[in-house]
Design goal:
The chain is mostly helical and 472 residues long. The chain is built from 21 helices and no strands.
Length: 472
Amino acid sequence: MTTPQEASTFGSFAGRIFFELGLTSLARSPRDVKLLVVQRFVRFVAYGASTLVLVSFLSALGHSSERAGLFMTLTLVGDVLISLLLALSADRLLGRRAVLVLGAALMVVSGLVFAAAPPSFWVLLAAAVLGVISPSGSEVGPFRAVEESVVAHLTPAADRSDVYSWYTLAGTAGTALGILTCGWAVEGATTALNWSFLDAYRAVYLAYAGLGVIKLVLALALTHAVEADQDSPSTARGSGDAPSDTTPLLGPDAGSQAGSCKTCWWAKLLPPLSPESRGITAALCFLFAVDSFASGLAPWSWVTYYFRSRFNLEEGRLGSLFFTTSIVSAFSVVLASSLAKRLGNVKTMVFTHLPSSIFLALIPVGSSLPLSVFFLMVRACTQSMDAAPRSAFLAAVLLPSERTAVMGAINVVKTTAQSIGPFITGVLAGKGLFWVSFVCAGSLKASYDLGLLAVFKNHKRDRHEERDEQSP
């Protein structure tokens, strides 16, 4: 029989485990934050399924590797425009909830168009852009900027790293489930039901549309608390030298110049950036552009196609392989929160991401399947551990009124840089030089890690809290 002292000790031990894993912070987060985590999971199930078959789907429609690479590049370019428009208008015009609802509705439409499988390259491209078909298995639309801004808005600074960890884990776990389910569903449909591969791929995108419907329902369930605070000019100004949340984008002297266009639609979209935020944003945009360009050289769509074409893996085995790597990556995300409590966000980002960059470059070195799978697996061990600390770091160095717009702008820069990579990889693949894209991607990612450490290693404080302390 357990004594009260033993029960207390066990409870204390369990509480410590829950704290280290970030479950305590997630449990006390608002209902809207939990809904966002579930939305991300559902969305990434759809992304995972689509990513596994995208290149094969285009191939089944008669498109070459070069054309498939061009498709992914143009999709990402189109996503840049959609993301920029929706992210900038989320706080000031449409509202965050409306943006998430609209994005979910477009996912449904896009899935239905792909399920109809029109052979037209341009029809599919338009559907991929508007409906946010992810060529890389990662976030490409406006969802992440809006959702991360909401999490920062509704979550205390001390809990953000934990909540972002579980937010990231939800996406990685969703990708894993989508890849596994899609792989075995396609193999079952083609072997047991004698479907053609094209018909099986159509069914995948029909399921994509169904997942969009679920996401739409979840988005409609969000409350008004997710919306940005609208401070009036009389109360929003800070005191002393601290920049206000409503400081004009072009500085205090720009008021007379911009007075004539206060009602212009584009003026309403511009985020009120403080001088320090401009420098931080510029540095982050450059570093993230390097990392994202590298990611574009080796997106999940091309990595899965590399293993399928080089080692002749069937969809079921391919799905199981990438399900395993995604699960390993998902569980490693939880450890990142515990590391961030001890090392800080920047060091955690760098020291976990750098090994994955090196192993990415080594994937094509192995001439046998086991060796390539080994490098793929060890890369997965730390591949996503930088995501949650990065989100917490961005929330800390940006002022609350800037987060949605700046995060959206950063995502636009990342997507723009990433968009170039898939076409380059498609050309290399067509010339039998697939391995070059892996080596270049790993090298560029390692350069990003070292640059991030050099520039931001001393940024530790939350600027929002810092300004509160300066206020009388």
